[in-house]
Amino acid sequence: MSDKIKKLKEQLLSSRKNGYDRVGPSALAEMEAYCAGYMAFLDSAKTERLCAAETIRLAEERGYRPYVRGMEVKAGDKLYVSNRGKSVMLAHIGRRTLAEGTQIAAAHIDSPRLDLKPNPLYEDSELAYFKTHYYGGIRKYQWVTIPLELRGVAALKNGTVVPVNIGAEPGDPRLVITDLLPHLGQEQAKKPLATAIPGETLNLLLGSRPIGDEEDTGRVKLAVMQLLHEKYGITEDDLTSAELEAVPAMNATDIGLDRSMIGAYGHDDRVCAYAALKALLDLTETPEKTALCVLADKEEIGSDGVTGMQSAAFDTFLEDLCAAQDVPLRVCREKSFCLSADVTAAYDPDYADVYEKRNAAFLNYGVGLCKYTGARGKSGASDADAETVAYIRRVFDEAGVVWQIAELGKVDAGGGGTVAAYMANRNITTLDAGVPVLSMHAPFETVGKLDCYETYLGMGAVYRSAFPG
Q: Which pTM was predicted?
């Protein structure tokens, strides 16, 4: 190749590079330290309630304090609001007035799981079970025969809220959903994956040891309820006002002989939530514009409800901050920028037929920008404009962030959504970006450490920037 052609290619053509060819040894050491913190966060935050609580703990350690309506708000203040213990909004007040907008990173902290039904406890053939109702887009066959733990709360009629933790501590028993043995599974094996495991068979096995006399009925169910009452002081009626979630009983771990990846439950979307949170907490100086981190609930089921991104909770918090500076909310919104921080699908060569390789996200190629998400004809997407994508390209390149741009699979293969559309509907300029994930929505997902770290760097660059809205 002639020097002229080589220079012309470098000048005019795009050249995506593996992130490991772009970062130095010192960055790799920082990456490992960051990922160790992220893995510890994952192990402490397997439900949205636990994630919100851990977020608040970390924020208070870094000087954040609860916002109280009507309090004075000035540059440098570090504030947070907990929305019903299931979502959190944090603000580092900037030097500029809110009339010039804010820099927002919004992620979600709920993940696909199995919730208990309102009347979950039953006995059949002298085995005790909890019935479940799956939450979010799961592939049901992936949830059988794996160890599960039960996390959440039971709210009693007197107002007491009892935390429940079964299976997370060393020495705890675990729960499981059984499956059919292959010797008797010929008919099951003929069914499509989507129907081979019916939702009504995702029942948690609780116990088999009866109490009482042989002629008594429901002895195993009663024995299980007695154990729950002894530990938590609850009765069967209290389960009707409980919020209990079955999640995988496994901690985050290194994946691969080179330890270049992390395997865990809940990467979607706590890998982006942690990056957004950690980048905010690590701001050592007062940002130019107010930096906001929004960690929302309910994204996996449409962002509805009082703790979802479609609720008025975020509007209320931002409006309160604006009122403290005598700024109209609408003025702040139209000058603001939001990075909708959610994961994207990483290219998997074992399932290449559902990806369009030229426009897929790859492991180790950095944070993935998504101009639009949605399904097929971009249904449900906010579809960022060209100027917004150019802004983030500039911000990331100036900060040395490794990034790529991608779609989530082939046009007709399906699609997905994020909170981006709900931020954009508020007249906030919004773009999707996040970590590429293998086995997304599975009980055990895989991400690249480099992508995790680069997403954190990207979040920090956004907070320190000033969108020219």
A: 0.96
- Give the whole-angstrom CA distance, residue 73 versus residue 66: 12
pLDDT digits (tens, 9 = 90+) for 27-84: 999 999 999 999 999 999 999 999 999 999 999 999 999 999 999 999 999 999 999 9
Of the chain, the end-to-end C-alpha distance in Å amounts to 44
Rounded CA-CA distance 350/331 in Å is 49
Domains of the chain, first to last = 3-111+265-464 (3.40.630.10), 113-248 (2.30.250.10)
The half-sphere exposure of 75 on its side-chain side, counting CA atoms within 13 A, is 9
DSSP string, 238-252: GGGGEEEEEEE----
Mean pLDDT of 82-89: 97
Do the Cβ atoms of 271 and 452 come closer than 8 Å? yes
Surface-to-core class of residue 168, CB atoms within 10 Å of its CB (0-12 exposed, 13-18 middle, 19+ buried): middle
Print burial letters for 259-283: b (CB count within 10 Å at least 16), e (below 16): ebbbbbbbbbbbbbbbbbbbbbbeb
Q: Identify the burial level of 227 via C-beta atoms within 10 angstroms of its C-beta, where 0-12 means exposed, 13-18 middle and 19 or more buried.
A: middle
Question: Can you tell me the distance from the alpha carbon of 279 to that of 50, in angstroms, rounded to the nearest whole number?
Answer: 20
**How far is the C-alpha of 18 from the C-alpha of 362, rounded, in Å?**
9
Q: Which residue has the tokens 């944070």?
A: 367
